[in-house]
Design goal:
By secondary structure, the protein is mainly α. It is built from 15 helices and no strands. The longest helix has 35 residues.
Length: 382
């Protein structure tokens, strides 16, 4: 039996969180309480409405502004609404449907996927700092994808890039987990340090590959891609990250109770009948698959999987049946707006969206560490 994970940092959610434990008033003041079904429905409805508004803004805002009413006219007409009278130019229709729509939808898909992966990782490893970018998973996926791009590997056709990114993500995650685990225990500091160290090594290997390749044009393209961006997508490639998101989120929703059990500790989860080692291995494969596909589509975009789960738990509590769908909608809204900002803040130059998420996520990470250190100090002094 695995020993429980030791962490000086507070657990992502109150423990135990299996089937709805009662929270104390002090827990509610910390944001650990749960909203009722009506509150959850309101939260999801508001986020869904915000997502519609965000997508509309993403289609309307850019170097060529398109009025929101005209945006929906173009979209509904393209979907077969014959009653819509076309009063727009062909150029605007091309901009909305062929340039912005795939990009905005990829932003929503990637934001939702990264938020869901971060939520699940924090439960699986029982560490509130777990996130694909910080743990080196994104770096592993990037290295796998770059090797395919630079060396022109096409063994599996159009799927070669995503499969290579998946293999890199899974290898990096397993390596970080194995490195941080000593004597059956993992501390938060060791986990984060292992992730940072392995990410640095993988990034160095990636840079070495780019520096030694004689395919200069591709190297420059890949270097820009490693900063994270949504500009390289089209309708022909959007289906793969969308499928990965649906598969990953659906599976995690089915396994939400088991994720709740893990938060109570490995021994407690085993007592409740969960095969922790097997469950964790399956989840690692699933999360690596989703991360690999997303990184292959838009490059490594950091901190979405760190910020959104913590923000969402303040709204709906720790039960993963509530957290997962809320985090998915919140992540989609966040990344769509981050991409809008990336396009307009320094127009006509475009800032990589990964740079903006890092500017938001870095301070959040520092705040999270200080908050949990303060809680640990207060708990130690009690």
């Amino acid at each position: 039996m695995d020993a429980p994970v030791a962490s000086p940092v507070a657990s992502p959610t109150p423990s135990p969180a299996a089937e709805g434990t009662t929270t104390t008033p002090s827990a509610r003041r910390r944001g650990d309480g749960r909203v009722g079904p009506a509150g959850l429905a309101v939260t999801l409805t508001v986020l869904a409405a915000l997502l519609v508004v965000s997508v509309t803004a993403g289609l309307a805002i850019g170097s060529v502004s398109v009025p929101p009413g005209q945006v929906w006219g173009i979209v509904t007409h393209a979907l077969g609404a014959d009653w819509v009278r076309p009063d727009w130019s062909g150029a605007r229709e091309t901009i909305v449907l062929d340039v912005r729509a795939p990009r905005v939808l990829l932003g929503a898909v990637a934001g939702a996927g990264l938020a869901v992966v971060g939520t699940a990782l924090q439960a699986l490893i029982r560490n509130p700092l777990a996130e694909p970018y910080l743990l080196g998973v994104s770096s592993g996926a990037s290295l796998g994808a770059v090797v395919v791009i630079v060396f022109g590997v096409t063994l599996f056709g159009a799927l070669s890039l995503s499969l290579a990114a998946f293999a890199g993500a899974l290898g990096a995650l397993l390596l970080v987990y194995a490195t941080a685990r000593t004597g059956g225990r993992i501390t938060s500091s060791r986990l984060v340090l292992s992730g940072v160290a392995i990410a640095a090594v993988l990034t160095a290997v990636l840079d070495l590959v780019l520096l030694t390749t004689d395919r200069g044009n591709e190297a420059r393209t890949v270097l820009a891609w490693t900063l994270g961006g949504l500009g390289g997508v089209n309708w022909a490639t959007l289906w793969l990250p969308s499928t990965a998101l649906l598969l990953g989120t659906g599976t995690l929703m089915v396994q939400a109770r088991n994720l709740n059990l893990l938060l109570a500790g490995e021994e407690a989860a085993t007592t409740m009948g969960l095969d922790v080692a097997r469950f964790r291995a399956r989840m690692f494969v699933l999360l690596s698959l989703v991360t690999g596909v997303l990184v292959a589509a838009c490059g490594p975009i950091g901190f979405v999987g760190l910020m959104l789960p913590h923000t969402v738990r303040l709204l709906v509590g720790g039960d993963h049946r509530r957290v997962l769908p809320t985090a998915a909608l919140g992540g989609a809204v966040f990344l769509v707006w981050a991409d809008i900002a990336a396009r307009v803040v320094a127009a006509p130059m475009e800032i990589p969206v990964g740079v903006l998420t890092a500017l938001c996520g870095g301070p959040f990470f520092l705040w999270l560490m200080r908050r949990d250190a303060r809680r640990s100090a207060e708990g130690g002094g009690a």
